[in-house]
Amino acid sequence: MTLDLSKVSSTYFEKLFVSKKGEQGSTRGKVLLVDKYTTPIISMCYTQSQLLQQDVILVEMIDQHRTSNVKHLDCVVYIKPTKESVSSLVRELKNAHYSKYEIYFNNSVSKSQLEQIAEADEHEVVMQVVELFQDYLIVNNHFYSIYLSGVENFVTDEASSLCSLLLSLKKCPIIKYENNSIDLKRLGSEVIYHINSNSQNNLFDDLNQNSASPPLLLLLDRKNDPITPLITPWTYQSMIHELIGINRNIVKVGTPEESLILSDASDVFFQEAMYLNYGDLTDKFQRYVEEYKKQTKSSSVENMKTQNLSELKKLLTKFPEFRKLSNNILKHLNLISELDRQVTVQNLWEVSELQQTIACNLENYSSIKTRMIELLDKPSISTENKVKLVLLYSAKFIGECKSNGDLSLFLHKLSDSSLSDPVITISQSKLIQNFNKIFNFSSSMTGDGNVNNIGRFFGGKKININLFSMSSNANNTTNNIYMQYVPKLNNIVGDIMSKTQSHSSTTFSTLIPDVVSQQYGKSIENLQDIIIYIKGGATYEECRLIHDLNASTDRFEIILGGDDVLNSKSWLNKLYDQVNDASLGSGSGISYATASDQTRDLL
């Protein structure tokens, strides 16, 4: 199976809802029981129309109390095998409200849980119990997110969700993780423990049987690239999330009740435009509107009068499609209009240009400082955007900030109500003062004498690949100043694809599951499938980068995921929480692995 998550969702839809052979005549309605973990999985993968087409007439939470029996309906149960959800299922089976039950778990279920279900099935209404492996959210075809809210054993559940991803893709990988992160060491050891212990159940055996090389599970820590989420993006999907917000493919524009659904699976325009930069996006939307006008012109009342009955019949059958197209145009018009408004209100052309200048070293220190002061003196620039600029500046010029007192000057301006409205909060002030401490910016970088370690975060080399189309927007220069910055992920994946050892030999540790070692040996080369997981959250800009890398080669297939889909606001909130934590005084925010760390025994 290729690394196409849309194929996973369609395969599981067939298993969950489509009638099997011999059941085609059945028109009995179905009820779908879900829990808080599988509800977003269903809502992000399937539409209400798809469910109705398979006779699913009602969707309910499994922990809700039902008072009346509806024996004329069948029940499909799709839940995560947690203690709470299994307990709710047991209560339901003891007092069965439906005719029969098909039970599906989205991850591995334990023997004791199966015994509980068997004991509760006093009425013998359970037809089958099946393990499906989708303990994660599918955001795009090559972008996933792990939902970990409210879990008891965070690392164990995180590893279990990653293993469900591997099983759904039918991949048993070698594991590489950034070895300066104790969080990744724990996660990596937990994943390999899951794989090796499940070999007794044959879950991971023979998954790579038809592959000449094993896949790679690449574990990264967001703390090793705190810069990317702070940079203002200029591609469609990324801009929507940054300036409006996308929550499980839902965007709220206007009043809180107004919700728009964004899905590349059901929206052709969005599928084609989601990775376009702002200038190309507006051009494409204009062409989209012109095409709609052209199609609907033939359906005007005057044209209908001149058509014969057969032509008129063909035209009338297109009316629902015209209405769908019209609604889609209105949806994207609202989104693009709101993006345009936000760009203007927030002065993002000016803010973003300075961000790019700092991150990409396009001007010298004195010039950038002058421009920083100019922007900090403008009340029209939001406090949050000023904070992001100061964070980038402090990371880039750590030595100058110390010797020249730049941060004190900037904090003074951010605390002046005539310049910043509102003035910075205590959390924002703490973050600015401790940003370099959190991410260990002050440690020296081996080999180049750069005492502020900036290459580790901003990237130390130009990528000689044109990943971005040039914008036709008049505000963009011929060098596309607004999209100069390339996330660090590009260097990491580029090294793997080109077999360069500069990153992998010095910053990554490798774990090889027993079944992979038996099949391929200890020397692993010629990797083809790469599964990336960023602990701390991934961004839509990194998703776009992976999309472009996939499009540039047929030798590799890459998917990206994380435990959150970040924009700058959510990333800043994580950082505020970190600086407000009383444990900040211990030093660097990155946990470094030592021999005494408590992890799973890998032997």
Shape: globular
Largest sheet: 7 strands, mixed
How widely separated are the two ends?
A: 30 Å
Give the name of the CATH architecture of the largest domain.
3-Layer(aba) Sandwich
Summarize this structure briefly.
It holds the Pfam family Sec1. Belongs to the STXBP/unc-18/SEC1 family. The chain contains 25 helices and 17 strands.
Description:
With 603 residues, the chain is an alpha/beta fold. It folds into four domains: 129 residues, Rossmann fold, CATH 3.40.50.2060; 169 residues, Rossmann fold (3-Layer(aba) Sandwich); 83 residues, no CATH class; 92 residues. 46% of the residues lie in helices and 12% in strands. The protein is built from 25 helices and 17 strands. A seven-stranded mixed β-sheet has the order 6-7-16-14-9-8-13, sandwiched between helices. A five-stranded parallel β-sheet has the order 2-1-3-4-5. A hairpin with a 2-residue loop joins β10 and β11. α4 packs parallel to α5, α16 packs parallel to α19 and α21 packs across α22. The longest helix has 27 residues. The chain is globular and about 75 Å long. InterPro entries: Sec-1-like_dom1, Sec-1-like_dom3a, Sec1-like, Sec1-like_dom2, Sec1-like_sf. Pfam families: Sec1.
